Amino acid sequence: MAATIRFAGVTKRYPGGHDALVDASFTLADGEFAYLTGHSGAGKSTVLKLAAGIERPTHGTVLVNQQNVGRLSARAIPWLRRHLGLVMPDVKLLEGLSVGENVRLPLEIAGVDRAESSRRVRAALDKVGLAGRERARPAALSGGEQQRVAIARAIVNRPAALLADEPTANLDAAAADAVLALFRDFHAVGVTVIIATHDEGVIARHPGRRVVLDHGRVIGAGAGEPQ
Amino acid sequence: MRWLRMHRAAIAKAVSLATATPVLSALVVIALATALALPLLAAAVAEGLLAAIARIDAKPTVSVFLAPAAGTREREAAERALRGLPGVSAVRFIPRDAALAQLAEVEGMGDLVAGLDRNPLPDTLVATLADADPGTASTVTGRARSIPAVAGVQSDVAWVARLDAVARAIRWTGVLLGVLMAAAVVAATFAAARLQALTHREAIVVATLLGATRAWVSRPYLYHGLLQGLAAGLGAAAIVAGALAGLGATLAPAFPAISEGAPGVGWRWIASGILSGGALGLMGAWLATRDLSSRPAAA
Questions:
Q1: Which domain holds residue B94?
Q2: What is the pLDDT of residues B80-119, one digit of tens each?
Q3: How far is A92 from chain B (nearest CA, A)?
Q4: Which domains does chain A show, CATH number per domain?
């Protein structure tokens, strides 16, 4: 299952009057692999937060699989998020939990039984190349490994879309390529992937559609490179 | 099954919240138990006292003391007048010599009575009242004073009424203490749950972003408050049991009529303590967690 994400005339004004997004319109189809690019402060993270219901638009409509996220009740937001895999700075790995427990968290929240969740945690960690590291603490892992744990946690609940905010920040090129290769793998099985990044090197090595933002405005939402 | 699984997981988390800081948890439970024990103890004492008063075989009587100079004729006239008063069901005459003999039989009074030059006690008419209504006793007492040859009147139900009033006062004090201490228990569990939630704020934010509902986030804290309250209630019942046993042992020699059959801590008291503790603990935790992650923008 994948997700369609549509922004129609979306403006997001933060308290204090700063417009993070201005009249932004674009559509990401089911199973699309897309980058949100632009300078720091261009509005990339805001797009992801609006799609995940972390922020609400000031004007306009954000649709995720035909659901108007801005109009969802507080009770409905968690159910939306369970269909999304978030890899964001706000969604930290919890230091008090082991790698396995961190990855298991979305399954616990969804009420998946212990045996099934153990199977899925092992499969997710295997998928990101961290099989056998379940008992390790996140602090004992490298930056690239921590990012892979975050991805394992994002995909363990079989999301319709993966939303990643600067997933390759602070990683060397090899680690960044490994992370991007994972996103490519999930995209290959039909998951919609949206990555906010300003790392042109990564985009060049792993081409995809680009939605370009500049000071909160969408200045390009082309089809991008062939996928 | 899914519902049961999620509650079982929440209870396990609640237990881990308590065991993560065992000393703090124990101190909180002790404080809550003490707060719960005070009103429970007052209520138990009041109930015991009222029950003991009900058990006392005290037919309401009014003792009418005749003047030393009163002869047989005056005594018979007084007896007739007394029988004629509304609310009087029987009148018994106790001659002064019989009264002195009764006094001499009281332990420790024999030597004192033997040393008297003369009998200081008056002839007495004891009027048994038809009911224990304080109004009846008051009316009979007042009208008996106006009967000729009567030197004094004493209501023998007054002390029972006073004891009854004391018991009721203790009960009301218990109710007042109950309200105040309930508020204290709710405030304490509120503060404990809030502190726990603040300590785990990062985990709450992450869980919310991963799709946790408000119920999922707050459930462990609610169970923690409930468990804390139940433990405190059990502790309060133990404190009340100990205190009542101590009080009983102290009062029994001096007040056998009251102490005999006074209530211990039965299942009713234990259940009251545990249930009220649990309910108050749950309420405090609910108040502390009702706004957790209520906004979608929790991060």
A1: 61-156
A2: 999 999 989 999 999 988 888 888 887 777 888 888 888 8
A3: 7
A4: 1-83+160-227 (3.40.50.300), 91-158 (no CATH)
